[in-house]
Amino acid sequence: MLKKLDWYIIKTFLGPFFFIFSVLFFIFIVQFAWQQMQNLIGKGLDSITIAELLFWLGINVVQLVLPLTILLGSIMTMGGFGERYELAAMKASGISLTRILAPLFALIILLSIGLYVFGDKVMPFSARKARSIYLNIIQTKPTANIKEGVFIESVPGFQMKINKVSGENSEKLEDVFVHKNASSGEDNMTIIAKKGNLAPDKLDNNYLKMELYDGIAYTDNVKDKNINQRKNQENQYTKFDTLNYYIDISELLNSGKEEDPGNSYKFLDGAGLRLLIDSLNTDYKKYYKTYQDNVFNQNYFYTNKIKTIDSLKTKTVFALNKKNKDDQDRVLNQAIQMVNRDQENLDFSKNEIINREKLYSKIDIQYQRNFSYAVTCVIFFLIGSSLGAIVKKGGIGMPVIISIIIFVIYFIINFSAENMAKNGTLNSSIAAWLANIISLPFSILFCFKANQDSELFNISIYLDPIIKYFNKFKKTNKNGEHSRYQ
Q: Quick one: pLDDT band at residue 437, thresholds 50, 70, 90?
């Protein structure tokens, strides 16, 4: 009898489960596609490429859809049992709520394992596929990611603004502005042209060929020149009818390789992420130890060394007040420059440490997320099945409202914690599990209340003790006679 009952409970759950999962997946994927569509439509891309890119980018919504489906499905299933008095009949037969939920709990464990495998294997694969399609688009249709009238920095080392893009393959440009982001001490260049074409170089796919017409190229030759030479040189510009300029995109094409942890961690499975985390830990410890030694040698050591020097017996190298005005200014300026240089070095080291911590947090969250979302499925099942048994309402009314409220609260906590970790204000491991840590006590409480047949949402249970307490302070009739007979 119990085996048939188990199968009946599972079948009752699977019906709403597949329906809810399909609806939610469609809603999430459509919302994602709508957000990305404006970047893809009208760029000369065929519908198959767009659909394939959106699919591989959007399939990751499964990590959000499955926990919500389990939450809503479990509420609807157990609520339906309670509404049809099937739950009461099961309990009257001597079957505990724990035994009733046992087959569904086993099914949820399997779904949780499946979600972990999905996050560990499928999501890195989908990220690699989407990256491959994106790079193919960049090589074949380089203007696909250009927004008209907006500065873009998608091409490493350049800032571009193009007011109008046209042509069959969106290769024709109008009102072109190109600025090369040169590092300190390197030559700068800015190009302004009325028209142009942008297409992949036929001889080398690592380059884009930009052919510009009727424009001006401004150059600032500062390489290997001192400050006075830079100040005295004249502004240099060149008017042109046609200018061929080649843009190196090899850095962009190679940005997903494994040796670049800043971009490749999304393409790794759990084992790869674990190895990357261990490698970063070793590298960071070495970096911090080296930085600590440098700070000690440059500051602490010399500070304590100066304390041992007897200033009364130390001869002054030179008296600044005895120098002429120019020498005084030169010495003071050099001292200021040294202080500014030390401050810049400290700021650079600070930013370097912050960036390293942010990268580590992102990678650690990526690793922990697969485990935490799998556990979320179990927690949502405990909450959903318990609330369904308590409210005893099936259908899509009350269960949907309760599920949405729980889902929104949970993922607000989850995403807020992850953002705090990525900004360096919260430990990444705590951030990945914080929402589960907060939700777990409530799931246990709801399970206990459901097992005790508690009327959790009956307001009178909470108000009656308060009303009874205040009734003690009300004045009573001294004669003991009801007021209506007085």
A: very high
Coil, strand or helix at 219: strand
- Distance CA(158)–CA(444), nearest Å, equals 55
How confident is the prediction for the chain on average, in pLDDT? 78
Chain position carrying tokens 């030169």: 330
* pLDDT (average), residues 364-371: 89
Closest C-alpha among 235, 203, 6, 200 to residue 100: 6
Q: Residue 273: pLDDT band by 50, 70, 90 thresholds?
A: confident
Cα separation of 439 and 469, whole Å?
32
44 and 371 Cβ atoms separated by less than 8 Å:
no
Phi-psi region of 187 (alpha: psi -120 to 50; beta: other; left: phi over 0): beta
Q: Global pTM?
A: 0.70
**What CA–CA distance (Å, rounded) separates 72 from 22?**
13
Number of helices (H) and strands (E) in the chain: give both, helices first.
Answer: 15, 5
| Residue owning tokens 């979302």 | 373
The percentage of the chain sitting over the pLDDT mark of 90, rounded to a whole number, equals: 9
Query: How far apart (Å, rounded) are the C-alpha atoms in residues 388 and 397?
Result: 12
| CB count in 10 Å sphere of residue 469 | 9
Q: Evaluate whether 69 touches 408 at the Cβ level (below 8 Å).
A: no
Nearest residue to 364 (alpha-carbon basis) of 353, 356, 376: 356
Q: What are phi and psi of 166, to 5 degrees?
A: -145, -175
Residue 301's Cβ-count burial label (10 Å; 0-12, 13-18, 19+) is: exposed
Q: What are the distances in angstroms from CA 450 to CA 93, 105, 389, 443? A: 17, 15, 6, 10
Residue count (the chain)? 486
